[in-house]
Design goal:
single chain; mainly alpha; Serine Threonine Protein Phosphatase 5, Tetratricopeptide repeat; elongated
């Protein structure tokens, strides 16, 4: 989640946004791949307005240029990362006080992270902290970029500092919990996610990851409860129906009707419909992998790795440990640092090795 930005009052032109501890409803739609998450609800300016301001004459910074207006758009955001980066870069050419420049660097750092430029994101948040060392939001933002780069220890340190600076910062608790999950520490993850949910209950991302951590601890009924609540909140996570099924299957509870309903909600050919059909016995694992390979190379590779994991779990439910082990190993080949399926595949291999 992109941290909300804040500045202190000064005599120079400044920019402000809702405080990071403000009680706002977290977005109910997001991704749980450990890379990009939803943005907090805050004021938005139409991209068309920003595009007009950043028109062909923009690089000249002529008499019509208004850095304060650029700064307002930079902090509010347009919803388009490349446009946000451009308008924040231009705003930073203006003469602002240190607190405002730190806010603008935070905003550009968040946009760089959304755009996938993690190193640039980390540089911007580090520069912001040099100007404003007491910014919990900057530590939070840098932590997210570091976590996406697989730098879990550094991310954990940043999130801990953010919480020391702002003890009721629920997003920092949530993201430290998610970081602990990716470090393979489900107990620590659950503690932090509990703390986040105590501060703000309506956070489907925290609930989803607490369910994933509980699943690692074989707390299947509790995991199912978290995921049912996520479903009710409208969390848009492709594999949520499969996790619900797996939690129920581990308790010998049938949910075929729920899987069939999930299949019907997807158009033919949509992903992950083939995986759901495999769990229903209506298609083969080979057909699932073939379907996963369709599309862009990077997307296809990610789907294949995810498919290997879920097919491994399917094999386990059918008592085929040899196939499950092979599937889990295949799912880890080339897996990114922050991957839900990779964490669970590693756990699956540990469980199988102990049998």
């Amino acid at each position: 989640m992109v941290p909300t930005l804040r500045t202190t009052k000064s005599s120079s032109p400044s920019v402000s946004a809702p405080a990071h501890g403000a009680r706002h409803r977290c977005p109910a739609r997001g991704r749980l791949d450990g890379t990009r998450y939803g943005r907090p609800i805050q004021r938005r300016l139409a991209p068309a307005l920003a595009a007009t301001i950043l028109g062909a004459a923009a690089p000249a910074l002529d008499a019509q240029w208004h850095p304060e207006q650029d700064a307002e758009i930079c902090v509010a955001g347009t919803g388009r990362a490349t446009l946000d980066i451009a308008v924040c870069t231009r705003a930073l050419r203006g003469h602002f006080d240190a607190a405002t420049r730190a806010t603008l660097l935070n905003a550009r750092g968040a946009a760089h992270r959304t755009h996938g430029a993690r190193n640039r994101s980390i540089r911007d948040f580090t520069a912001a902290l040099a100007l404003n060392p007491g910014s919990a939001a900057a530590h939070h933002g840098r932590a997210l970029a570091r976590r996406e780069a697989g730098e879990y220890d550094l991310a954990h340190a940043d999130l801990t500092t953010a919480l020391e600076l702002s003890p009721r910062y629920h997003q920092a608790y949530r993201d430290r919990g998610i970081t602990e999950f990716f470090r393979g520490r489900p107990e620590a993850a659950i503690r932090d996610l509990n703390a986040a949910l105590d501060l703000y209950r309506f956070d489907p991302e925290a609930l989803a990851f607490r369910g994933l951590a509980r699943y690692l601890r074989s707390e299947f009924e509790a995991a199912e409860e978290d995921w049912v609540e996520c479903e009710q909140m409208g969390l848009d996570y492709l594999y949520l129906p499969l996790w619900l099924h797996l939690a129920r299957a581990r308790r010998d509870a049938s949910d075929r009707a729920a899987l069939e309903s999930a299949v019907q909600a997807l158009r033919p050919g949509a992903w992950p419909r083939p995986l759901l059909l495999a769990y229903l016995g209506a298609t083969s694992p080979r057909e699932v992998i073939q379907h996963a390979r369709q599309g862009a190379a990077a997307l296809g590779a990610a789907r294949v790795r995810a498919s290997q994991f879920y097919l491994g779990e399917l094999a386990l439910t059918r008592g085929d440990e040899r196939t499950a082990r092979a599937r889990f190993e295949a799912s880890l080949a080339g897996a990114p640092a922050a991957s839900v399926e990779a964490v669970h595949a590693r756990d699956g291999l540990v469980r199988l090795s102990g049998r």
